[in-house]
């Protein structure tokens, strides 16, 4: 009981602090935005990718172009590796970041998020036919709540599958955390800078499984080079991943966040986001 | 998609992007080497000085820039540099973020690293000059400047040249690490092309060949220069 | 302002990866040194069939950045089923093995050039003198070429050793959990870039300081004749000379 009370209290204090921070920020930086710089990884298809010739394309660049047209903002996309993206945002190199960034409590401590524009599922992939047979080709979706006690049956099922295996993941994602908290003690984990690198190692047989986004796997597994790889087990969705993918802002630019929230709401309401997700993911993944 | 098409210069190929990237690598390396020459000779002079304070300063520079991995130096400059510049800017009344372009950060970071290598080259070359020749110059009454010009510099140049060739190659190599802060030079362009086309082996090889061209050509230039300064010397039987 | 608890915690976490960094360093340095002897032997040979491949090797590994060599060996070679079925896969399968291989191959090229530079610096007269008194080739190598080269090579080799230690940081790019890898992992969790990188930099500094000191001590021991002769204190010079007859002989 007492812990709950303390939690509630700290929450109030947090809100109060955020309120004060917002007030201070809006007083000091009530700036009129005409142009913004947006960071993207440009290497996470189909969300964002580098096309031959060096231009950036994908779901997010197209969505951003639509949002910027709504707000009459001049938007510049810049490529930045994921591992330096949040520090660069904080240093002020960019005004916002868009890279399939899932809202997590840890990240909310350091950056501010817009409303989510997509919600996706994570899944395991394997290349070894024996492992694929054992785990079964991915079909149905399992909803995990993020509450350890409720999720235990399915996690235990995964643990028996993953025991003694090597799992590859991209570093610093919501999935990294999921894999580390649940399987660190029974499997060895390798972290990669880019998602395509663990797919490469999966084919090479250096790792037994990799864990990433369903949308990412669907796009790369179409390629002839990856025909040996397939998604296995159940697709994992639900509240465990939080509200979904959103734009990231510095905490001192609430007016910019508000502007983008408004544009996103409009794009979600008139079906633009749905149309774009269907174009790029062949499925409606709006939140 | 075959390799030839991937390398084409049109909208669907990576040819032009890679060519531009080679130019960027070359420019970055030259600027870094010049920055390094300034810092390197200063540090070498400080280290050879008789004043303990200066020697200590030179030592600290070397320990710092030769001791920290290049990757960390570049990251520290990139993130730290922007914070410092913005703070200075605010002091003078500017608002918002004042960025340091990746090229500037890269040239400075790689230049300071290159300076730490060059300092050792200059110092080593100075030490290799036979003491007797300096003593002889002193004995026949040459002034400080004359000794510097007639005895020291020609010999230091001779001994330093092979080392400088090494430093040039090292600086070229270090410039590849600037890819981590988003400057599109040869390394980054190769990685981008490899990731986009899934032809990892092919594009790493192509990137490697690009670097080989750069180092091969510049190595030849250094060889010619070395041959010129060495021509008054007897050849060792081990050399061909 | 400075969060010492966080710094200490970070430092302890980073130190847990120190064994990986150190074993990576020592295994690749010693493998590279062995390999470089073979390469330099081929390189100075008069037979073009031997010297030409060595030249190519040196050109390729010195001419390209280590980062691209590492990517090529790890991701590039792993693409081919032929490589995956060969005996080399035992080593190349693990990121650690790939890191050691690429670091060793790279340093071998550099070390070979350093040793060759040392060989070239031997005064011709000394070799002639050795031949004149009828030394065999082996004796020439053992008594003249090797000791003179060793002295000449040490400063450059100490630079190379330090470069190698720093280069081990690149292993983090191919998923090896070394000091830099752990640093990046901590940053992904905490987003405190400067503090974590500063801690990592500190660890590398200490390691390199130890290497520099060790090499300088060795250099000092091996070059007594190059030290400045004390001019103004003849009594001390006499003392030195008396206590160390070897240095007296060499200075005469």
From TrEMBL, chain C:
<keyword id="KW-0812">Transmembrane</keyword>
<dbReference type="Pfam" id="PF00528">
    <property type="entry name" value="BPD_transp_1"/>
</dbReference>
<feature type="region of interest" description="Disordered">
    <location>
        <begin position="233"/>
        <end position="252"/>
    </location>
</feature>
<keyword id="KW-1003">Cell membrane</keyword>
<dbReference type="InterPro" id="IPR000515">
    <property type="entry name" value="MetI-like"/>
</dbReference>
<dbReference type="InterPro" id="IPR043429">
    <property type="entry name" value="ArtM/GltK/GlnP/TcyL/YhdX-like"/>
</dbReference>
<keyword id="KW-1133">Transmembrane helix</keyword>
<keyword id="KW-0472">Membrane</keyword>
<dbReference type="InterPro" id="IPR010065">
    <property type="entry name" value="AA_ABC_transptr_permease_3TM"/>
</dbReference>
<dbReference type="GO" id="GO:0006865">
    <property type="term" value="P:amino acid transport"/>
</dbReference>
<dbReference type="InterPro" id="IPR035906">
    <property type="entry name" value="MetI-like_sf"/>
</dbReference>
<comment type="similarity">
    <text>Belongs to the binding-protein-dependent transport system permease family. HisMQ subfamily.</text>
</comment>
<feature type="transmembrane region" description="Helical">
    <location>
        <begin position="94"/>
        <end position="112"/>
    </location>
</feature>
<keyword id="KW-0813">Transport</keyword>
<dbReference type="GO" id="GO:0043190">
    <property type="term" value="C:ATP-binding cassette (ABC) transporter complex"/>
</dbReference>
<protein>
    <recommendedName>
        <fullName>Arginine ABC transporter permease protein ArtM</fullName>
    </recommendedName>
</protein>
<feature type="transmembrane region" description="Helical">
    <location>
        <begin position="193"/>
        <end position="212"/>
    </location>
</feature>
<feature type="transmembrane region" description="Helical">
    <location>
        <begin position="54"/>
        <end position="74"/>
    </location>
</feature>
<feature type="domain" description="ABC transmembrane type-1">
    <location>
        <begin position="14"/>
        <end position="215"/>
    </location>
</feature>
<dbReference type="GO" id="GO:0022857">
    <property type="term" value="F:transmembrane transporter activity"/>
</dbReference>
<keyword id="KW-0029">Amino-acid transport</keyword>
<keyword id="KW-0997">Cell inner membrane</keyword>
<feature type="transmembrane region" description="Helical">
    <location>
        <begin position="20"/>
        <end position="42"/>
    </location>
</feature>
């Amino acid at each position: 009981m007492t812990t709950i009370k303390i939690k509630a209290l700290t929450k109030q204090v947090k809100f109060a602090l955020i309120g004060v921070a917002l007030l201070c920020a809006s007083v000091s930086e009530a700036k009129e935005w005409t142009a913004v710089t947006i960071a993207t990884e440009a290497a996470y298809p189909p969300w964002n990718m580098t096309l031959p010739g060096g231009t950036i394309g994908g779901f997010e660049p197209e969505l951003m172009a639509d949002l910027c047209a709504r707000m009459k903002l001049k938007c510049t996309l810049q490529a930045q590796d994921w591992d330096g993206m949040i520090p660069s945002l904080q240093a002020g190199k960019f005004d916002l970041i868009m890279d399939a960034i899932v809202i997590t409590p840890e990240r909310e401590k350091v950056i501010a998020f817009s409303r989510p524009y997509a919600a996706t599922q994570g899944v395991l992939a394997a290349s070894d036919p024996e492992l694929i047979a054992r785990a079964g080709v991915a079909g149905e979706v399992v909803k995990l709540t993020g509450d350890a006690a409720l999720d235990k049956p399915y996690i235990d099922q995964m643990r028996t599958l993953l025991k003694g295996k090597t799992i590859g993941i991209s570093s610093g994602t919501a999935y990294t955390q999921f894999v580390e908290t649940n399987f660190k003690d029974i499997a060895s984990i390798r972290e990669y800078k880019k998602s395509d690198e663990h797919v490469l190692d999966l084919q090479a047989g250096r790792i037994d499984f990799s864990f990433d986004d369903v949308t990412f796997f669907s796009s790369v597994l179409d390629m002839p080079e990856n025909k040996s790889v397939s998604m296995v087990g159940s697709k994992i969705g639900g509240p465990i991943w939080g509200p979904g993918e959103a734009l990231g802002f510095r905490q001192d630019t609430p007016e910019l966040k508000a502007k983008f929230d408004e544009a996103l709401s409009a794009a979600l309401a008139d079906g633009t986001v749905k149309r774009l997700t269907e174009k790029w993911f062949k499925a409606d993944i709006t939140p | 998609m075959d390799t030839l098409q991937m390398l084409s210069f049109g909208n669907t190929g990576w040819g032009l992007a890679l060519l531009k990237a080679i130019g960027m690598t070359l420019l970055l390396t030259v600027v870094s080497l010049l920055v390094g020459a300034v810092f390197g000779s200063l540090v070498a002079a400080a280290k050879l000085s008789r004043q303990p304070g200066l020697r200590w300063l030179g030592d600290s520079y070397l320990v710092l820039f030769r001791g920290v991995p290049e990757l960390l130096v570049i990251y520290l400059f990139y993130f730290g540099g922007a914070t410092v510049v913005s703070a200075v800017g605010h002091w003078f009344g500017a608002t918002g973020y004042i960025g340091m372009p990746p090229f500037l950060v890269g040239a400075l970071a790689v230049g300071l690293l290159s300076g730490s290598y060059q300092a050792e080259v200059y110092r080593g070359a100075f030490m290799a000059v036979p003491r007797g020749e300096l003593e002889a110059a002193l004995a026949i009454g040459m002034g400080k400047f004359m000794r510097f010009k007639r005895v020291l510099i020609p010999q230091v140049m001779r001994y330093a040249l092979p080392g400088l060739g090494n430093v040039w190659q090292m600086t070229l190599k270090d410039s590849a690490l600037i890819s981590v802060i988003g400057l599109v030079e040869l390394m980054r362009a190769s990685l981008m092309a490899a990731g986009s086309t899934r032809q990892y082996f092919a594009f790493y090889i192509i990137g490697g060949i690009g670097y080989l061209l750069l180092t091969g050509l510049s190595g030849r230039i250094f060889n010619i220069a070395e041959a010129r300064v060495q021509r008054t010397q007897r050849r060792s039987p081990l050399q061909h | 302002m400075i969060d010492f608890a966080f710094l200490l915690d970070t430092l302890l976490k980073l130190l847990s990866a120190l064994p990986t960094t150190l074993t990576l360093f020592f295994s690749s340095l010693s493998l590279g040194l062995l390999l470089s002897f073979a390469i330099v032997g081929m390189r100075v040979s008069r037979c073009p069939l031997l010297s030409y491949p060595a030249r190519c090797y040196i050109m390729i590994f010195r001419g390209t950045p280590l980062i691209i060599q590492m990517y090529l060996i790890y991701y590039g070679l792993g693409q081919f089923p032929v490589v995956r079925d060969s005996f080399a896969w035992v080593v190349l399968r693990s990121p650690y093995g790939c890191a050691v291989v690429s670091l060793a191959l790279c340093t071998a090229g550099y070390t070979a050039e350093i040793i060759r530079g040392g060989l070239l610096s031997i005064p011709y007269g000394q070799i002639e003198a050795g031949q004149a008194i009828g030394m065999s080739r082996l004796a020439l190598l053992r008594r003249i070429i090797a000791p003179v080269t060793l002295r000449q090579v040490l400063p450059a080799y100490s630079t190379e050793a330090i470069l190698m230690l720093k280069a081990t940081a690149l292993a983090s790019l191919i998923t090896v959990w070394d000091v830099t890898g752990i640093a990046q992992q901590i940053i992904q969790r905490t987003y405190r870039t400067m503090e974590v990188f500063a801690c990592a930099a500190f660890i590398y500094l200490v390691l390199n300081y130890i290497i520099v000191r060790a090499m300088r001590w060795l250099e000092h021991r091996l070059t007594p004749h190059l030290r400045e002769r004390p001019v103004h204190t003849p009594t001390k010079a006499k003392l030195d000379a008396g206590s160390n007859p070897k240095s007296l002989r060499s200075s005469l």
